[in-house]
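User: These chains co-purify. Model them together.
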Amino acid sequence: MKSIDPWGSELAEDYGKIVQQFGLEEFTPKLFPKPNRIMRRGVVFAGRDLKPISNAIKNKEKFYVLTGIMPTAERIHFGTKMVIENVRYFQENGAQAYVLIADLEAMATRGVSLEEARKRALDFHIPAYIALGLDPKKTTFYFQSENKKVMHLAFEFAKKITLNEFKAIYGIADPGRIMSAVLQAGDMLFPQLEQRMPGIIPVGIDQDPHIRLCRDIIARTKSKYNFTPISSIYLKFTPSLDGEMKMSKSKPESMIELPEDTKSALRKMKNAKTGGRESIEMQRKLGGEPEKCMVFEMFKQHLVEDDKELDNVYKTCKAGTLLCGEDKQHACAYMESFMDNFIAQMEAARKRADRLKFITFK
Amino acid sequence: MKSIDPWGSELAEDYGKIVQQFGLEEFTPKLFPKPNRIMRRGVVFAGRDLKPISNAIKNKEKFYVLTGIMPTAERIHFGTKMVIENVRYFQENGAQAYVLIADLEAMATRGVSLEEARKRALDFHIPAYIALGLDPKKTTFYFQSENKKVMHLAFEFAKKITLNEFKAIYGIADPGRIMSAVLQAGDMLFPQLEQRMPGIIPVGIDQDPHIRLCRDIIARTKSKYNFTPISSIYLKFTPSLDGEMKMSKSKPESMIELPEDTKSALRKMKNAKTGGRESIEMQRKLGGEPEKCMVFEMFKQHLVEDDKELDNVYKTCKAGTLLCGEDKQHACAYMESFMDNFIAQMEAARKRADRLKFITFK
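Assistant: Joint model of the two components:
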């Protein structure tokens, strides 16, 4: 089995193949009530053990959704946005939402002090997550470095895996990665210490090794803990604006951050790769290729909420009636509105940050 | 360089060779004022960076001595006793003494719950350590699982070493051992978080990999922490009573535990290997061989405090005037007195256990 390094930034494009190789379930929006934009459009493309989550929603039983904040970055990106939108979806459908601040990993991997990580999380990341739709009153936040139970689980879990098993899952093994991985497994199972229940973790496919390791650990600790196996849901990457890889800092001109200065964001949108033909004449005649268009991808993943509108963009592009210039103008208008709204929401969320539901530890 | 696995139980006998191979300093009792019994008799055979400790004692500067309790065992053994005697020596000579209870490692390696580990440490190990001479009023105790700072250091340190470096030091690497090792490095440096100062760790040579790893980590984190390199002092093993290996549970008849039922302890002493000759006549003629005698080894390491008395045993044995039977009678008398006293001291220490100086963590 091919292993994807969750610390790398390789683009995994052939999602069908990944579903097979990793033994995932193909995602179908029918599983969940009122699927969100990215579920409906196949941006959510796979999962593991989705049935227990589906059942928990239908039967109004307890379950949880969990994600983390890595407080090293100054900004977040569109990939994070999609994760949060899924956390929000499950939260709105009855899940207890947990957001951990990975300050311990930030210290260990990037040398960011715990104080600095705390400040960044409170000033930026948590308000950003709230701006993207998390309900702060219903979300439980904690700092990894303060959660002794998570640290204890991490130390305990380390004994449950061999080096070769770790290598088989991650393709690579070193002390730092091992510590991060068992810490993440601790985070993923922490909500179950009080009560066993299904939990869902929305991730990019590059994070699947963490999910697999956690599921292996659940199996290994069955007699002691009997944790309910965690479920996961996989999101396609948001591609870079030149279409060549996943959106990444390594190509700043092809990446839009959250937040980003509107002028800069619009300039990048204008330079995005489209599915346009060599000439206007050709495009009128043959129609555009929205499948290859990064502007269309941004519409689909992020900017256009209404399915009919998206469908109309697709059809008029295909028909050669919508040209790239006009299309980009729409995209820029959407982007400007999104970014302005995001920044305003963040400002508002900052003011509410003191009313967050933080776990406090003895 | 040969690596000794601190988790194994191989006997390292050729101490001279070890000093060379591991790049240790040979120990000389002149380094320290009023050296204790095991220092004077070469049972302490080597060290690392002993000069800063020697200077701290002479100049009455701050330094610390540290050891750990592994609360899995029901009893302790004579090797532990010597470690505690050295901790006591440095404590009496001005060191701040730290004793950590490795409940997190006990949970991780042996599946002992934190509650159970706490109970065992309070009921048995801590009173035993006090019975062996630690001053409870001057000793700082803490539970690893409660010490967030130690756990944070462990996670941070893991990123500072590669898998190959770990293998080079330990001869073996797996996630459990890695976690234990970085946790121990965290423990060893925890006393320096408040103030940089020399610190000495008395260990058996099998624990040297932990010392080397910690010293490597100190070098790697110099720019951030600038920890003072830790010093260490190495004790010879107490041999099994048949003289074939270090005293170990794998040979229960050749091992005396602390505490052990006096009858059982005396029976084992009576069966100990001596340096006696084939017949009494031969022994009268040639003299005995105290160098090969486990009874003499017990006298030297543990039972006879007075150097002159020990010297007298040696000489009369060599001269053939002291025979093994009589010698063992003395040994049994000493052992009985030691064991009775130890048990009484432990009982007394138990009653004082609530007055210990435990670190409490927020």
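The interface with chain B takes residues 104-105, 107-109, 111, 114, 145-146, 148, 151-152, 154-156, 158-159, 161-163, 166, 173-176, 178-179, 182-183, 224 of chain A (CB under 8 Å).
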